[in-house]
Write a structure and sequence with these properties.
The protein is α+β, with helices and mostly antiparallel strands and 120 residues long. 17% of the residues lie in helices and 37% in strands. The longest helix is centred in the N-terminal third of the chain and has 11 residues, at 2-12.
Length: 120
């Protein structure tokens, strides 16, 4: 009976997947990381990923839930806006953590962005 109670508590707590932690810091391409260090964007090639969202030069998306360090693919609902366009759109963004190869991001209608490496 004690083993059953322990198993139930692990399942209710979220099991091993609950161990994933929120992504720390900024992740980007070379231009994105240089922009973080400089404090501004100055190139169309700018890409920066955080737990809260992704920014490119002139556009960005804010995730509804925070991105974690879990390996593999996460689908995140996001509110996106783009320079020169009125309003926002709701998109499902796919972020793939490929370990040492970095993060890759797919936004509907755009080419895959990445690899994005830690800026620290």
């Amino acid at each position: 009976m004690a083993r059953s109670a322990a198993l139930i508590s692990v399942v209710l707590a979220g099991g091993p997947a609950a161990a994933a932690v929120v992504l720390a810091g900024s992740w980007g391409n070379d231009v994105g990381c240089a922009g973080v260090k400089a404090g501004y964007q100055d190139s169309d090639a700018y890409i920066l990923l955080t737990a809260e969202g992704i920014e490119t030069y002139g556009s960005g998306c804010r995730f509804e839930q925070q991105l974690t360090t879990a390996p593999g693919t996460q689908s995140l609902d996001a509110t996106c806006s783009a320079e020169g366009e009125a309003g926002t759109t709701i998109e499902t963004i796919v972020v793939t953590n490929k370990g040492e190869d970095g993060f890759f991001v797919t936004i509907p209608g755009l080419e895959e962005l990445g690899p994005l490496q830690s800026c620290s």
